[in-house]
Structure formats: structure tokens, C-alpha cells
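Entry 14. Structure prediction run on the chain below.
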Amino acid sequence: LDKLKTEFLSLASHQLRSPLTAIKGYASMLFEGSFGKLEPKQEEGAKRIYTSAQGLVSVVEDLLNVSKIEQGGMKYEFSPTDLSTIVTNLYGEMKVPAESKGLEFSLEMDTHDKFIVSADGTKLKQVFLNLTDNSIKYTPKGFVKISLKREGKNVIFAVTDNGMGISPETKAKLFEKFSRGEGGKTNTGGSGLGLYLAKQIAIAHKGDVTIESEGLGKGSTFSVVLPANGEYPN
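Output returned:
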């Protein structure tokens, strides 16, 4: 049954990709004026179609990645990767959405340390991006801080906020498929697969993703722990 379920998810996700790409493309062309100038309300409608389609594309990508992991088909291209470059670029990308919410957004990184790991840089960036985006999404006001540090033989990327926090009951199942924290009650977007995927990708890098939170309303810290200068995972 598990095998059939995974095959169905993979097939359904692939079939959804093409029409979603068309919806996104035509919606973009509409509000960019490719078919003539739109009235403000029409332009707003086209942008909403584009945004909704983009959300569905993200869900489909998550489903496809879960299928790949469960079928053993997730491909990784490991090479020596400088995480400081990835994190610096991530900070630049997420600064605007964080500050548009009125959040204090900061980066803490010791420039004297080395942050080279054996990694698939593209997939690790997806993990860091997912954790940072979640933190911004579920922090109504206050701060979000991303950090990169060396601790013994490990490199640790962390996202800390003073947002909604996580209850002990939720923490125990947070990395399961389709599991969503308390924030899912106020923000219904997303697939509930992001943290599961983050954990699986970290494990493939011989690392882990951990969560610390003192409870609801007391913020949280998500950390990605990776071996520094380690051997290439199999």
C-alpha cells in the first residue's frame, strides 16, 4: 500500500506540473501587459492567480521530493561547499520579506571561521530557505535571526525567533509527513512536508535538524547540524 501510495503521489504530481506552469505563465503575461493593459482590479486578480499557482507549484515540488526520497531516487551532487556564501545570499533574499512585516532581521556569522562542508548546495539552500521562511511566517512581530557557527567538528546553521513557539506535544511529531505546528491554524498555506523534507535532506548529509522551544508564545530555534570537512556521504 505504501508503494502504491508513493507511486500515485509521484504520478499525480507530475501530471499537475504542466497545467500549473501554463497557469503561472499566462497569469504573469496578463499582469505584465502582454495582452494589453489591464484595469487595476484586473491586474490584481491576475497577480492573485499567479501567487496561488506558485503556492501549488511548491506543494507539487514537495510531493515529488517525498516520492523521490521514499523510492530512493533523490539524487545528491556532493562537493566541498562554503555555507557562508549560501547563508549570506539567503540573508539578502529574505531581508525584504522579513522587514516588510516589520521584523528585525539579522545575520550572525564569524567571518574568521571556515564553514566548508561536503554537500549538495542547492538542496541545503532549500532547507535553510524553508526554515527561515517558516520563522518569518510564524513571527507576528519582533525578530528573526539566522546564524552560522562552528562547534567542534560540526557546522551549525540556526534560525531563532520570538514568534509563536511550539508546544511539547507538537514538537514530538513536527518532522513527520503532513505534520503542522500551531502556526498551521493561522496560516493554512503549505503542504506540511517542508520540515520532513528538511530532516531527510540533512540526514542524507550525515547531519540532522533539531528544534528548541520553551513552549507556545516563547519563540523557537531550528538548527541544521552538519559535519565539517567530512567524508562524502554515500
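The CA atoms of residues 16 and 60 lie 7 Å apart.
Filed with the rest of this week's runs.
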